[in-house]
Design brief:
By secondary structure, the chain is mainly β. The protein is about 0% helix and about 35% strand. The strands form five sheets. A four-stranded antiparallel β-sheet has the order 5-2-8-9, with no helix packed on it. Strands 12-11-15-16 form a four-stranded antiparallel β-sheet, with no helix packed on it. A three-stranded antiparallel β-sheet has the order 1-7-6, with no helix packed on it.
């Protein structure tokens, strides 16, 4: 993806740049492998990312969000460059929040508000934190609705696009009415940014779950 950062300062022919801050107010330093850090004026050149005006006089400027940044909510500040290089004293012309899943911007319509279930099921678990007693329902492959009340359940997981492998915990308990409980999606299962989990059983439809995991404050990438 590209052009995730947009600014409309109301003038054409400008030179704009932007920087990215995490929820703790730390700027992203792109030098080396890239990392968020406490703000240092001497590092400002590594905080700055360029933007380009679209067309010849559109007054719409786009920049590419750094793909090395992991999933999360970030603040973006755009500035108008006054001299030959970006400076921290350049005028701020736009700012806003950006929801990032590690490769693209997440539309707000895909996120949940209070009392709603989002398109990201289940809702934003934390990276590397176990989910005990994970519940799911199995239905008949014949009609797609009758509960499967007995059967041998198997589960597999794919982390960050890797091949599917077995879940660390293979302990399943039948709850009733087609519902089953996995003892836990373990912390090791969820030590990733994106995960896909599938459950299968003889005579049942496959159940699929997609996870977009968030990092806890201060948690390493």
């Amino acid at each position: 993806m590209a052009g995730e950062v947009i600014a409309t300062p109301g003038d054409t022919g400008l030179t704009l740049h932007f920087e990215v801050y995490n929820v703790n107010g730390q700027p992203w330093n792109a030098s080396g492998g890239g990392a968020f850090e406490a703000y240092q004026t001497s590092h400002y050149a590594s905080y700055s990312f360029s933007m380009a005006e679209q067309g010849t006089a559109s007054m719409v400027y786009l920049g590419n969000f750094p793909t090395a940044i992991g999933p999360g909510l970030y603040n973006v500040v755009a500035r108008r460059q006054a001299g030959g290089s970006p400076l921290e004293t350049d005028q701020v012309v736009a700012q806003g929040e950006l929801h990032w899943n590690g490769s693209t911007v997440i539309p707000l319509s895909s996120l949940a508000t209070s009392g709603q279930v989002s398109q990201l099921i289940p809702l934003r678990p934390t990276r590397g934190v176990a989910i005990p007693n994970f519940l799911f329902k199995m239905v008949s492959a014949t009609d797609g609705k009758s509960p499967v009340t007995s059967g041998v359940i198997s589960g597999m997981i794919s982390r960050d696009g890797a091949a599917f492998g077995p879940l660390q915990s293979g302990a399943f308990t039948e709850v009733g009415k087609g519902w089953y409980s996995l003892m836990a999606l373990t912390s090791a299962d969820l030590l990733c940014s994106m995960a896909a989990v599938v459950f299968t059983a003889n005579g049942a439809d496959q159940r699929d779950f997609g996870f977009l995991l968030q990092r806890a404050s201060g948690q390493a990438v």
